[in-house]
Fold each of these.
Amino acid sequence: HDLTKESPELQRCYYLLTKTSRSFAAVIEELHPELRDAIMIFYLVLRALDTIEDDMSIKSEIKVPLLRTFDEKLNTKDWTFDGNGPNEKDRLVLVEFDKILSIYHGLKPQYQDVVKDITYKMGNGMADYILDENFNLNGVETVKDYDLYCHYVAGLVGEGLTKLTVMAGFSDDSLAQDNFEKSNSMGLFLQKTNIIRDYHEDLLDGRSFWPKEIWSKYTKELPLFHKDASFEQAGLSCINELVLNALSHAKDCLSYLSMVKDPSTFSFCAIPQVMAIATLAEVYNNRKVLHGVVKIRKGTTCKLILESRTFPGVVAIFRRYIQVINHKSSVSDPNYLKIGIKCGEIEQFC
Ligand SMILES: O=C(O)CO[C@@H](C(=O)O)[C@@H](OCCCCCc1ccc2ccccc2c1)C(=O)NCCCCCc1ccc2ccccc2c1
Ligand SMILES: [Mg+2]
Ligand SMILES: [Mg+2]
């Protein structure tokens, strides 16, 4: 949309958005004007919070209180933070947080309340996990921990977005009636896809989010999948079990999308989901994941965006990638039968 007649602060916020996430910037900029600025600010506030969480150079005595009270910064007019390490990739959103605050205070009060409430819950959820000392080295302990951590950093985003879109009348009220179960799945599907994909990159940062309850079936130490060629097959079986776990959210995501009425809101919700199912198909049984970040091709992305404008288009995309995963599955994989059943279930639903 045309930014030229917007205020300098608003233009600067859209600049910060494009600098921190090309993919989310593209879908947020296409949103209906009623929600566009609110969701853009929602993104920037949470990206600022995440930039504190992700920065391994901030010691936990500073990081934990900052995460827990980050929502209070939203009550100020011009708070900023320059305490990130020099190469923390999104440090600019904290250095220029006063620009975000000036637009935040101009939003409708009920939109401000959603942003602040989710910020409070996410900040405290992140702080709870930072305190769990083995969180960094061994990833999260159980699958339950894995689901809870992903709820804090991504499920809550889905909850906030559902509240905003229902308030604006763009989504069916029923989306806010299931205790945000489906909204949570929307976030977990995206976050778990990234966590599987980013195994090697996160290892380089000295951390992992893969749940020990799953990876410990295949190795004693997580880095062996990358370091020791004799653990490559085990690494593939681990990836495949994590993909199977992520696919457990697919039906909820399709069900959620079937209840989004406004066309721009539908595309905003659908595009990240179809990118995720395509990424899951790409990482499934793919040894490259153990040695680097695997991305889907640019050409594929463009095709997916065009195809995901309608619900039947999204269903066709999910059905296609579910078949790709099924065909990639090898009989020797410990979860061969389960992945076949899960793919069948999702296809039924399609
Ligand atoms: O540092 C990075 O670049 C990646 O960080 C990951 C991490 O640190 O785990 C991790 O940081 C999570 C904490 C900050 C969340 C920021 C966020 C992301 C997308 C949004 C979309 C719209 C509105 C607000 C949003 C807020 C991350 O960015 N993971 C990407 C997946 C998160 C998906 C969130 C989400 C949930 C439900 C959705 C429903 C519909 C449309 C978009 C949705 C988007
Ligand atoms: Mg991050
Ligand atoms: Mg993070």
Note: The first helix runs from residue 8 to 20.
Amino acid sequence: MADSVAVEDPKFTLQEVLDTFKSCLSENKEVFLEHYVAGWLGLVRFMNSLGSVFSFIAKDAVNKIQILINHLNGENGAHYVTVQSMVKYELDNQLVDLTKRGSFPESGCRTLLRLHRALRWLELFLERLRTSTEESKTSVMCSEAYNESLSQHHAWIIRKAAGTAFWALPGRATFFDVMNVGTPEQVVAMLGDALPLISEVYQVTEDLYVQNNILDLP
Ligand SMILES: CCCCCCCC/C=C\CCCCCCCC(=O)N[C@@H](COP(=O)(O)O)[C@H](O)/C=C/CCCCCCCCCCCCC
């Protein structure tokens, strides 16, 4: 994987992003970190194409993606091939701050947890988009999904800034166009195919974090 994050790829299509998430899971349901990170990179590219009002969100996502890439490309990269091996390696070697922020602010476990929580937002948002009508507002769907998920982990000031950015989202028709998938019917069909995959990646990761009691890493 390249050492640094490039978010300006002109060849972006949402289908490619969803294919990347599809390749995240191994046969025995391990999550490949490289594909997980690549999926997020594609999403950030998509978000960047929506305008600079989202750049503070993109910046935070890119920071976290970069931390994970650094782990993948680092001298202990072999332990970071899957999320399962990463969790085991970092916990076995006390490389995670478990109760308060300390020596390991860039552990893979806490960094991935932030993206994992955002994946739940994505799942809820895409499900709303899939079942939306021409009259539905993307800003409303986005903020409902956010309020049901990620917002619970954010400080007031972040919630405020996110809420303001949501109002700048383009309408449903433009949003579907930017996805580069085809007609609205094709977008809806693609979302129907993609959502179970995203949900499964989310659930496998969630179960792993529950089993290891690391869902609240500071
Ligand atoms: C088919 C449609 C596709 C939709 C495409 C959506 C593209 C979304 C791409 C990226 C989403 C952003 C992921 C954000 C990760 C946020 C991680 C986080 O929670 N970070 C906070 C905590 O970090 P630490 O301080 O503990 O290190 C951090 O405080 C957050 C800062 C930035 C604000 C995050 C707001 C998140 C809103 C998510 C909705 C994005 C809306 C985009 C609309 C397209």
Note: Residues 184-211 form the longest helix (28 residues).
Amino acid sequence: MPHLLVAGKLHPSGLKLLQGSGHSFDYVEAITEASYQEALPRAEAIVIRTQPLGAASIAKAPGLQIVSRHGVGYDAVDVAALNARGIPLCIVGDVNSAGVAEHAMMLILAASHRLIAADRATRSGNWAWRNGLQTHEVAGKTLLIVGFGRIGRHLAGMARAFGMKVAAYDPYVTDWPDLATRVTDLTEGLRAADAVSLHLPRADRVILGASELAAMKPGAVVVNTARGGLIDEAALARALAGHLGAAGIEVFDAEPPAQDHPLFGLENAILTPHNAALTVECAERMALASVQNVLDFFAGRLDPSLIVNKVS
Ligand SMILES: O=C(O)[C@H](O)COP(=O)(O)O
């Protein structure tokens, strides 16, 4: 039976599934470069969280046959190095959509209603804050979703239930669902939006830079639960000190962000620690799915739609 490396903390249900499978495995809860060195030479499969798996690490695992992401983003994995050896990389599919989409909706609502500022005002005895009229409803407002895959679509359904008009931008989608108006020009979509929420993989370019942020309406809300690097964080901080209303940021260019990060000093930035998909429910589903994908692979029945790289 092939040997597994579980690289990063896994929900107990995933470990239980693995224990019952008959596979031997190393469980490295807090993976570091040093622990990779120790465990990789034995690994024939890796279940991996968001920490990097680079070409040098992959080269240390001569028997590696499959990498299974506990999640859907795989920007931290060196896909070219896997491709070169014909090693498949699989993701968990739809199992984290609810957690991430709910988190995005929560950030849109919290930013619009200034939840954190309201909480702080209440605790500090600033009751007069309630008459400041600085909060906004989302009903009737336009949400632009950038990236219209599983999570973006889930969010579209929720935003519509809140009475939002939903538009989406995604040049790669061919099966456009009847959940959002299609926008073909990002800047035009941003000009018309009261809120924008990103739901695309980390790209090698910034999607919301200074000029895109400048195109947005005064008072608009920016939400990112996708990946750091998609927004120019310094430009966002400047825009939040200027015309933008608020932002909800769950992912950062460098994680964890440094204490002097430009967003930390802004009262209208709501920040969360890349935990959207780590609800108890989501963490359990991701653990079960990422382990099951490895078991399915070795049983010859892994769903090919979960493999994201090119292996022949
Ligand atoms: O960003 C992600 O892909 C999800 O949060 C899962 O990542 P994790 O495995 O580090 O929790």
Note: Residues 49-50, 70-73, 277-278 surround 3-phosphoglyceric acid (CB under 6 Å).
Amino acid sequence: MRAAENLNEFSDISYIKKTMLHQLQCFFNQKNIEDRRLEIEIEDIDIISWLRIQNYNEKVYWQNRDRTLIAAGVGVADFLKAKRLSDCHFANVNSLPANMRFYGGMRFNVNSVVGTPWEKFGEIAFFIPQFEICKKNAKTFFAVNIIVKEEMNHARLYESIVEELNSLDFSLPPTPRFEDFYRERVNVPNFEEWQEQFAEIQRQFSTKEIQKIVLSRRSTLKFPKYVDGFCLLQHLTNTQANTYNFYLQWHKDCAFVGATPERLYYRKDNRIFSEAVAGTRRRGQDAIKDKELGDDLLSSTKDIREHQLVVENIKQVFDKICKNYSCPSSPVLMRLKNLQHLYTSFEGVLNEKTIDGDILQLLHPTAAVCGLPKQKNMDEIEKLESFDRGWFAGPIGWLEKDCAEFAVAIRSCVVQKNTLYLFAGAGIVKSSCVKKEWNEIEDKMKNFDCIFRKVTE
Ligand SMILES: C=C(O[C@H]1C=CC=C(C(=O)O)[C@@H]1O)C(=O)O
């Protein structure tokens, strides 16, 4: 690592490339090489702008809620793909070098039929980026991840990494503001269809087949020109607080972008943290109105029941995977830019040999995005929703040796050429009101407030 007096040098492109090239040469000159992450400290750079201009199909951006980790990666050093969680070799993650991460996630329902715009995403997919810029503990690093497979020719691996390194672009033109106007918006379901779905659900509540269901909507917005997902991401990082901000692209022209408040879990060694986030009100326009709305949420029987079902469900999972755990007896408010939610945190110690695959299998989908009972609702959602949720409401995050973090991919959209697909859902219980739930979803979509400008001519 370089001394602090040379900070200016850190941003010098030739310094970055030359220093990394030197590290690569030293590494590949060794007789026996194994997986390695090479890192150099660089000056703090605009990570989104860097990511935006790289010429790769595979790109990822991750910013955790307290912004202690911001990472962007391009290219593929290794990947992990599967149709079922049970076929994913998560145990291999434990042999990765320090700080090397698999980023990715999975579909909400790996058994459902794949539809637009999710064709390029797969069921479960993770990758270790070839190149990464990572900001951690107020320091910024440029990293190259090297995965050495048995069958690989080392000289060829070296050459291909060097060639890619040379073509990385550090010119950093700033990401423009999102200033596009849409021409057309189509809601699936429309309000009449939403009412019909609601009536069907009410019937199932009365026969006690389901206790709570989370139904979602998709809004498709058509723009006159290609939508730049990085401008959206930049807007989210500028305007949202207390959210995980993410961007994931497996192919150019199709990206999954979001700013979600909901942690599925964070694991450090055998300690696990999770949370129930369910029950919603808007933020008030001033402190008095805001408190009024918050108090109303905290005392609403309907919202507390909706929330409590999520809490009970996480308890059942923690009973299975933890030696011990704790959670407060009543929810508090989680305040976001536009909305406030009921929130209960969980903290536990995992049973020995519990791997991330087991945790994902049991914790996802939470009752905050699916409802209860889970299997019945997965089938019901597949039947009632006439679009593919894809990765919306699925787990999204990263895994590294001894550590993992997943958010629930809500408050999200897919950007595909000149089309933007927005997704949001709402928890419905017996006492829910059809119009209020429709409006709640509309409020959730307003996370992307910058897009709601229509061409009027
Ligand atoms: C399913 C979504 O939100 C969930 C998380 C928080 C509050 C929720 C609610 O109050 O309905 C939902 O359970 C979404 O934003 O698409």
Note: The pocket of ISC is lined by residues 214, 216, 262, 277-280, 341, 368-369, 410-411, 424-427, 444 (CB under 6 Å).
